[in-house]
Design a protein that fits this description.
single chain, mainly alpha, 13 helices, 78% helix, 0% strand, elongated, signal, Osteopetrosis-assoc_TM_1
Length: 292
């Protein structure tokens, strides 16, 4: 009987502990949700101008602390993490941490860079405020000092500078060059003229060279054809001569040949000689008949 009572108390105690742990996990979850909400609100409020890293350092640290506490509790891990495909708690935390990482916020607190940058930019803003109308001359030193510091930092970090400083420097440069019109770029007229001449002469040079080369090739080609040492009789010339040697059938068929005077004389002599021969033969025949 005593043993049964002890067993019941033990079961009751285990149920109570389980309930307490479950309540603790729910409490941790609510705290994490509140910290995440605070960080999202802070990020949105510090969007323009960007002061995410400096302005939301505390909310981000609180959110990270609440997440780690919940992660270290075994019962909470089994209950809220890796229980489904979406894994909402881990995914939400990863997105918010990615925003912090994407802005290179850790660089703001490395080597006290943000404090040095803020000091220099405040000096420039004070100078601009005190010297209205003469900003370009009297505040040039402060501007160059700030710009040099940023360029050194950018080169040292391979471009991964805290985004708070990036946004602030971009706005400062835009204000200095566009609003105050202090950035005057010198125009090199000589360089401009040389560039224009090169652009104009390049097409002319190209087409002139092409024309000269074409003419030269044509001249060499003609010399090569006319030189008998390099070429035999032209095929076209041979064909023309062979055609010229052939009798003209068309002229023979259409136009009868008219004999010349010399040919007529020769024909007459030939005809008379034939007639004499025939008369001689006839007289010889008559003589033979008489003798017979």
């Amino acid at each position: 009987m005593h043993f049964q009572r002890m067993l019941i108390k033990l079961v009751f105690l285990l149920l109570l502990v389980h309930q307490v742990l479950a309540n603790i996990c729910d409490k941790y979850l609510r705290e994490l949700a509140q910290k995440q909400s605070a960080f999202v609100q802070c990020s949105t409020l510090h969007a323009v101008p960007v002061r995410l890293c400096i302005g939301c350092e505390d909310p981000f640290s609180d959110m990270q602390g609440a997440y780690m506490v919940m992660r270290e509790e075994k019962n909470c891990t089994e209950k809220f993490f890796d229980k489904d495909r979406i894994n909402i708690v881990s995914t939400t935390q990863s997105i918010l941490t990615g925003l912090w990482t994407k802005a290179y916020c850790d660089d703001c607190f490395a080597s006290n860079n943000s404090d040095i940058f803020d000091t220099k930019i405040m000096d420039l803003e004070d100078c601009l405020r005190k010297n209205k109308g003469k900003e370009c001359q009297l505040c040039l030193t402060q501007y160059l000092d700030l710009n040099e510091f940023y360029l050194t930092l950018d080169k040292h970090n391979n471009g991964q500078v805290c985004y708070d400083m990036q946004d602030s420097m971009n706005r400062t440069r835009a204000h200095w060059s566009k609003d105050l019109n202090c950035c005057h770029r010198e125009f090199d007229m000589l360089l401009f003229l040389v560039t224009c001449c090169i652009v104009v002469l390049l097409p002319l040079l190209f087409y002139s060279t092409t024309y000269a080369l074409t003419k030269r090739q044509e001249r060499y080609h003609d010399v090569f054809i006319e030189d008998p040492r390099h070429n035999g009789p032209s095929t076209s010339a041979m064909a023309s001569s062979s055609v010229a040697d052939l009798p003209s059938t068309s002229s023979t068929a259409t136009c009868p040949r008219v004999p010349s005077k010399k040919n007529l004389t020769n024909n007459e002599e030939f005809t008379s000689s034939d007639d004499d021969d025939e008369s001689v033969e006839a007289s010889d025949i008559k003589t033979r008949n008489k003798i017979a």
